[in-house]
Amino acid sequence: MARLIFLGPPGAGKGTQAVALAEKLQIPHISTGDILRQALKARSPLGIKAQGYMDGGELVPDDLVQAMVEERLHQDDINSGWILDGFPRTVSQAEFLDALLQKLGHSSAQVINLDVPDDILIERLLGRGRPDDTEDVIRRRLEVYHADTKPLIGFYSDRHQLVYVNGNQPLEAVNTDLHQVVAD
Q1: Cα angle at 138 between 73 and 175, to 5 degrees?
Q2: pLDDT tens for residues 96-131?
């Protein structure tokens, strides 16, 4: 059973690769970014709360994201596995996820870190054309990533759950590397 967590900075290709791998493995791709964008579009209470944080390039507070992830991991379609994309982003979220998986009787997840240099990330994100992808917001997101999320690499490395994949190569090569990691 595949339980995978995709780590990496904004623009590393986590979403693109997670969708492709989820389709191949026939498991759900759980993207907190997509769920939050849907909540923003629907102007739901969560979306309204999250809007201010996202507009400033800040992380949405743990309690909002954790409640959303917990609700999602209680749904029936995750019984054969899942790919989490965009969560956890902090060590405290990772600790929450570990406790949640234990509570649900699930084994630990394998963690895949897509590694891409910052200059490539800025170029990629500016090329997406999203309204919230201004250069200032992108640079702030990368600062937040380096400060808050990068410690997850050490957290999962210490637990022998982390695998690195070079995200700075053609999409097909990244996809091939991911398939090999999951098959091993």
Answers
A1: 55
A2: 999 999 999 988 899 999 999 999 999 999 998 888
CA 166 to chain centre: 16
How many beta carbons lie within 10 A of that of residue 156, not counting itself? Answer: 23
* DSSP letter for each residue of 127-148: HH--TT--HHHHHHHHHHIIII
Bridge-based pairing of strands 81-85 and 29-31 is: parallel
Classify each residue of 66-104 as buried b or exposed e, where b means 16 or more C-beta atoms within 10 Å of its C-beta: bebbeebbeeeebeebbbbbbbbbbeebbebbeeeeeee
Q: Taking the model in full, what pTM does it have?
A: 0.85
Query: Would you say 161 and 108 are in contact if contact means Cβ atoms under 8 Å apart?
Result: yes
Token pair for 25 = 């493995």
Q: How far is CA 38 from the centre of its chain?
A: 16
Nearest to 16 by CA among 182, 180, 183, 172: 172
Give the start-end residues of each E strand in 16-175.
Answer: 29-31, 81-85, 110-115, 162-166
List the structure tokens of 171: 């999409």
